[in-house]
């Protein structure tokens, strides 16, 4: 008896093929918003087949994060610590924005996937050489967490773009109502929120500049702490 189309497809399915499709799905949606059913519909198989090849959503999400983070840059370990973290974090934003939810996963689970272990080793080593001493772990954590929080917040706002309380247009409207009574609200709307509400290239530029500001301010704060120490 000839095999059905589904059986033939199943016969050629591999764990890598499942993760390939999960990565593609994450690039179109949000890692934490799609379901196993969404994935199996794209693959044309039953959920049991995916569980058999890879596992449940938690394991698949971890594998997606591993795949995405394997594309992170590895800065020259001989760079000063400031430049090393610039070389890691500034390009990371563009990569992570292409796979919404990965930054949130990292905030929830920590850097607990194999592809980031060399980056942990190199980052901790460069901070140790700089003289952070017992605060080395704190310094590494605040650099990574501030960057990931900023990316994750941007992704959450895009995911809820039509949810009034969480979108930039609503913030602008609320600030405009307060503007007649607050010069600070007007300035905040002009210098921070307004370009995000415009969308398009203006929002992209503002997002890039804001992320760079977060990274540079974090580095400057750690420099000041190190100097005082």
The CATH class of the largest domain is Mainly Alpha
Instruction: Report the major sheet.
Output: none
CATH third-level topology of the largest domain: Tetracycline Repressor, domain 2
Mean pLDDT metric: 87
- Helix-strand topology string: HHHHHHHHHHHH
- Our count of helices gives 12
**Morphology:** flat
CATH architectural designation of the largest domain: Orthogonal Bundle
* Rg (C-alpha, Å): 21 Å
Distance between the termini: 77 Å
Portion of residues in beta strands equals: under 5%
Q: State the helical fraction.
A: over 70%
What does this protein look like?
- The chain is mostly helical.
- It is built from twelve helices and no strands.
- The chain has helices spanning 5-11, 15-28, 36-43, 47-53, 57-69, 81-97, 102-109, 117-130, 136-159, 168-179, 183-198, 200-228.
Could you give a quick summary of the protein structure above?
The protein has two domains: 5-68, Arc Repressor Mutant, subunit A, CATH 1.10.10.60; 75-159 and 199-228, Tetracycline Repressor, domain 2, CATH 1.10.357.
List the helices and strands and how they pair.
Layout: H1 5-11, H2 15-28, H3 36-43, H4 47-53, H5 57-69, H6 81-97, H7 102-109, H8 117-130, H9 136-159, H10 168-179, H11 183-198, H12 200-228
Give the tags.
12 helices, single chain, Arc Repressor Mutant, subunit A, 229 residues, mainly alpha, Tetracycline Repressor, domain 2, disordered N terminus
């Amino acid at each position: 008896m000839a095999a059905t189309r589904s059986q033939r497809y199943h016969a050629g399915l591999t764990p890598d093929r499942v993760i390939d499709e999960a990565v593609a799905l994450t690039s179109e949606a949000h890692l934490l918003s799609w379901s196993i059913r969404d994935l199996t519909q794209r693959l044309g198989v039953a959920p049991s087949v995916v569980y058999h090849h890879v596992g449940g959503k938690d394991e698949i999400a971890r594998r997606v994060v591993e795949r995405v983070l394997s594309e992170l840059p590895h800065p020259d370990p001989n760079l000063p610590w400031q430049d090393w973290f610039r070389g890691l974090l500034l390009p990371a934003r563009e990569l992570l924005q292409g796979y919404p939810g990965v930054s949130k996963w990292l905030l929830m689970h920590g850097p607990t996937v194999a592809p980031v272990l060399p980056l942990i080793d190199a980052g901790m080593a460069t901070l140790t050489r700089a003289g952070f001493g017992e605060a080395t772990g704190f310094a590494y954590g605040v650099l990574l967490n501030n960057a990931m929080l900023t990316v994750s917040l941007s992704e959450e706002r895009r995911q809820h773009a039509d949810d009034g309380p969480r979108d930039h247009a609503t913030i602008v409207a609320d600030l405009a109502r307060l503007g007649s009574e607050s010069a600070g609200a007007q300035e905040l709307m002009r210098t921070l929120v307004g370009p995000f509400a415009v969308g398009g290239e203006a929002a992209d530029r503002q997002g890039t500049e804001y992320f760079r500001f977060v990274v540079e301010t974090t580095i400057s704060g750690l420099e000041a702490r190190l100097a005082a120490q």
